[in-house]
Amino acid sequence: AYSQAFMLRRRCGFQGDLRATGDVLIDQLAHMQRSGFSSAVLRDDQDAAHGEKLLTHYKAFYQGDAASRAPHFARA
How many helices and strands, by DSSP H and E, does the chain display? Predict the structure, then answer.
């Protein structure tokens, strides 16, 4: 699903909501966000507040992603 989300955003230019459902854990959220997912339905035993906190844990990523194509060193 990560690759499909990335291709939908990059190759197809899809701008709508991409929602992850199923067995979604909070430790997957950052990678999902970078791959192009815009929302997720967490598994019942996952803490959404802790997941939101994890999304702000890293301030920047070296590699480009679905939202920002340029690598960190090339960003203005």
Answer: 3, 2
